[in-house]
Design goal:
Length: 259
């Protein structure tokens, strides 16, 4: 039928514009993730070191980095990510090295604190914690719940990988944090994400004299980039033009027949 033949190029163009979410994992170097669209730096200072980024904390428990996830395809059912970091000494040469990384929904944050041990300077542990933030969303304020994992060997100058997984359950969010899989802390919170809240990833420093070197950030599940829209090929555009001309001719011939 003439009408079907005329419409075929148009239908093929529709299929060309079909989009889908890219598969995770989605990985960025430290130098890349501080330049992602929409990021903000409520406190602290930043220095690029090769492919890594160094953060120097300036305020107690202050958000140093915030990445809105609005531009990503997000599955709130389970968000997992890993962060590679190198332990640095403080401005005074001490081993204090504590930071928090989590997902913030506009009301509270779900994630893990990675802290140095009180018993040995070359050891560290992870605490999975659910926090409230101050109204201006720049400082950790209240611990809603938390749980602590075992200590791991982690001297200054060593690089380790963290893994954080946040899964929604009927009773709240299940938060699991670990360091290189060697020591973990599991926490089931009494609340889950605000269904109307926009999600963002936050990095929080602990004390003003602490320094952190972040090497890479990888989303292993739950976060992906949307695929860019396909650009139609010249042949498809030409086919669309011929199809529209054919459609117009068919309509004109049909009108003459009716008249």
């Amino acid at each position: 039928m003439p009408f079907v033949k005329a419409a075929l190029p148009l239908l093929s163009l529709v299929f060309l514009f079909t989009t889908a979410a890219s598969a995770t994992p989605l990985s960025f170097t430290g130098a890349e993730f501080i330049n992602l669209p929409g990021v903000s730096f409520p406190s602290g200072t930043r220095t690029i070191v090769g492919d890594s980024v160094r953060f120097d904390s300036t305020i107690d428990n202050a958000v140093m980095y915030r990445l809105p996830l609005d531009g990503f395809v997000v599955d709130r059912g389970e968000i997992s990510f890993s962060l590679s970091f190198t332990r640095l000494l403080t401005d005074f040469g001490s081993v204090d090295f504590d930071f928090y990384v989590g997902i913030f929904d506009g009301q509270s944050a779900f994630g893990s604190f990675f802290i140095n041990s009180d018993t040995a300077s070359d050891r560290a542990l992870v605490r999975s914690r659910n926090y409230e933030l101050t109204p201006d969303e720049t400082l950790l304020s209240t611990i809603l719940s938390g749980n602590q994992g075992p200590e791991v060997f982690f001297p200054a100058g060593q690089t380790r990988q963290t893994q954080v997984s946040i899964t929604q359950t009927p009773s709240g969010n299940n938060v699991i944090g670990s360091i290189n899989g060697a020591g973990g802390a599991t926490l089931v919170t009494g609340n889950s994400y605000d269904p109307n809240g926009s999600l963002s990833l936050i990095l929080v420093g602990n004390q003003p004299f602490e320094n952190y070197l972040f090497n890479s950030l990888t989303f292993t599940s739950g976060v992906a980039l949307p695929e860019p829209q396909a650009v139609p090929e010249p042949g498809a555009l030409a086919g669309l033009g011929f199809g529209l001309l054919g459609l117009c001719g068919f309509i004109q011939r049909r009108r003459r027949t009716i008249l």
